[in-house]
Structures are given as C-alpha cells and as structure tokens.
From TrEMBL:
Catalyzed reaction equations: phosphoenolpyruvate + UDP-N-acetyl-alpha-D-glucosamine = UDP-N-acetyl-3-O-(1-carboxyvinyl)-alpha-D-glucosamine + phosphate
All copies of domain Enolpyruvate transferase, residue ranges: 4-354
Lineage: Bacteria, Bacillati, Bacillota, Bacilli, Lactobacillales
GO BP, sorted A to Z: cell division; cell wall organization; peptidoglycan biosynthetic process; regulation of cell shape; UDP-N-acetylgalactosamine biosynthetic process
A GO MF label: UDP-N-acetylglucosamine 1-carboxyvinyltransferase activity
GO cellular component, one term: cytoplasm
Protein's name in the database: UDP-N-acetylglucosamine 1-carboxyvinyltransferase
Subcellular location: Cytoplasm
Record keyword Cytoplasm present: yes
Pathway assignment: Cell wall biogenesis; peptidoglycan biosynthesis
Keywords per UniProt: Cell cycle, Cell division, Cell shape, Cell wall biogenesis/degradation, Cytoplasm, Peptidoglycan synthesis, Transferase
Amino acid sequence: MIPATILANDVVTLEGVPDISDVASLVEIMGAKIERNLEEGRLVIDTRSVVSRPLPYGKINSLRASYYFNGALLGRFGQATVGLPGGCDLGPRPTDLHDKAFKDLGAKKIQEEEAEHLEVIGDSLVGTTIYMDVVSVGATINTMLAASRAKGLTIIENAAREPEIIDVATLLNNMGAQVRGAGTDIIRITGVDEMHGAQHTVIPDRIEAGTYLALAAAMGDGVIIENVIYEHLESFIAKLEEMGVGLTIREDSIEVHKSENLKSVNITSVPYPGFATDLQQPITPLLLKAKGRGSIVDTIYQKRVNHVPELSRMGANISVLDDRIIYDAPNELTGSCVQATDLRAGAALVTAGILPVELQKSLILSLSYLVMTTLLKN
C-alpha cells in the first residue's frame, strides 16, 4: 500500500495504518515527506520529493513488501534499483513471476550482487496480457502498480483475489488509475499518464484478526475482537465453528464465547477465498486443545512448519510427515524456552504461551501484533 503512493507524485493520506515496524521502515526507505499520527493511524505521504535512486539495502533486506517498490518506481520513473527482499524464512519464495510480468510489460532486469535493477526498454512500459503461472498476491500487486502507468491495456489472468488486491486497486483508482476486475481472476488495467493525490482508508488486517480469534478461543474466557470484516475470514471462521468454537458475529466485531469439547479438524491452506496460509500456524495451538487426530497441509508454503518442534518441546503430540503436520490432541502444554523463527510461528508460540513460556527472538513479533501482549495481560 505505501509503495503505491509513489505513483501519484502528490500527497496521499492513508487512514487505518497500523503502528508496526514494517510501516516505519517502508516510509523511511522511500524518501518521501511524511506526517504520521500514530494515535489515529494516519499517514500523510508527500511523494513529490521522491526521486529515482537506488534504495538502501539494509532495511530492505528485512522486508518482504520491499519488492513493491519495483513496480511503483518502474511505473513512475521507468527504472528501479531495489535491494533483494527479505521476510520470514518459509522456504523458497521466488520472485520469478514478478520478473516475468515486468519483462512482458517491456522492462529488462540486471541482477546486481545485493539488488536488482529494472529499466524500461524504449520510451515506456506497454500494456499486454500477462498470465500468472501460479496465483500470487505479490506478483499481482506489483503488476498492477507498474501497469497503472503503462501505455495501453494490461490484462492479468489467473490473478490473486485476496481482499488486499481489492484494497490496492481501490487506492490506485482513487489516485486516478483505471483498474477493473480486482477480486476476480482477471484484472484489467488501462494505463494513465499521470496520477494524483487521494485519501484512502486501509482495510482491517484479516490475518491479525484471525490470529486474535484463535488466541481468544484458546484462552476460553470470552473475548470481543473489533474492527473485523467477517467476509474476509469466512473460511477461517468456518473451521472455528467446525471445531465447536462459539461465535457471535456482528457488523464489525466478533465475540468469541467460552467453548469446551472442541473437535479436531483437518486444515488445508490454499489461495483466497480458501484457508489462508498465514493463519495455519496461529490456529495450531487451538487445535492442540481439541479432541482427536488431525492434520494441516500448507499448499502455499510447504516448509512452513518451524513452529512444530517448538510446540513439541512444550509437550505437544505433533510432528511433520512429508510436509504434512499431524497432531493428536488434547495436549497439556508446559512452560518451556522456545524460539520464534518467523512472524506467524511467533504468534503461534505466544498463543501456546498462555502457559508460562520464555520466548526467544521476540523481536520478530514487533513486525505486527502490536496489541497481543496487552491482550494477554488483560
């Protein structure tokens, strides 16, 4: 969302921006003039001072979202030099779909030691039809960013359909772009020469909300999660209800009731609108409170299993077999020293750590979940 504002060459105001370290790093890296109201979640970004320059490698290397600067800078300036993206270690996370889309639009890539340089061949990017071999949120967004300033019509086939895609498209349209079909598997972008400032409210984070729902269900004391869009979490909520978690769903909040006699379920993470890969780790501690055997299969990141040995260290009967997580529950977990190797694993271990637990590498959690410790204390 933040890199997209570069396309405007104007002042863009974002509302509902979370106070997390990724946001602070992104606004520092891009070189725009910033006014930030943490209490109200408002971010005013003036990108008129942004120039085409290599972006620093230091903080870029810790951010997966940094690769969105490629699409935004390429769209506005016709070139981009951005340090290689970082993020959590979830196994292979290639950017070949991004590179293919940029190439199809008319850009060439020069691989440098710690960065990649992209530049337009000719006068500008040119719209075309781009088929995504694999459904990819990141590649879909990056293509939308670059294509918004390309000449002519770009069609993205097999596009990702996540709510975040619609949110970015809404921002781009507010800034003067012409994006149609976001939320379906075919997106059409008619490029424009100029984009302007706008005001946009960011949608609530469905992954954060889902994590809190799992935490609330595990605590079993009755908790209300506010600022939730139910429709963005239907597949996740369906699994909670299948387990026997009592929920009261309201317009923008969900109340989690005290639930007993939970049933084990099988979970398979798939692209939206299916069960989100980012929620398979946070829900795992709740599964360990259920009765029976179940499994988790992550079809997006097959190696997203780093939380399993840590939960096993706490006494969970859980293991990995051929990239499939198998668990037998219920389990009585005990306090232990565990290691959060990635963001979602950290969220899972914090949920499991309702019991006494010492969490190493806790700085990972500062990337998100800013109120989780407050929720636990209360």
